[in-house]
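SAMPLE LOG
Freezer: B-3
Tube label: C17
Construct: single chain, 141 aa
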Amino acid sequence: MPITKSCQQLVAEAMAQVTTYSVAEVQARMNDGHTQIVDIRDPRELERDGTVVGAYPAPRGMLEFWVDPGSPYHKPLFADESKEFILFCGAGWRSALAAKALQDMGMTNVAHIDGGYAAWVKQGAPTETLDEQKARRKPKA
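STRUCTURE (predicted):
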C-alpha cells in the first residue's frame, strides 16, 4: 500500500499548527519559572551529544503516555498547567510532530524549538552532559 502523505508533509502540517520559538526566544524564557524545556530525543542521543541545561528528558516514544494522567506511566510534571512545555529534538521535526500530538490530546501550553538541538548548539546556547545533568538534579545531602 503506497503512503498518501510523506513525513515532510506531516512535519509541514504540524509546523503550521504549533507554536515555534527561536533559540533566542527560548533562552530569554529559560529561568522565568513558567517554562519547562523537554528533550524528546532518544536517550542514546542525550548520552552522545548532551542536552539543554535544565531540560527534562522525555523520550518521544513515551511522551503521550507520560502526559496522560490516565496512563500508568504518567509523570506529574506534565500536569502543571502553570508551565509552558517547550519540546526539542535533533532538528525540530520530531518535536513539531510531538507538539502537534500533545495539542491533539488537549494541551494548549506546548511549543517547540525551531531547528532543535542542532540550532541550539550552533547558536552557542547553554548545554550540559548527561552526567552534569544527573549531578545537578541529585538531591544535596
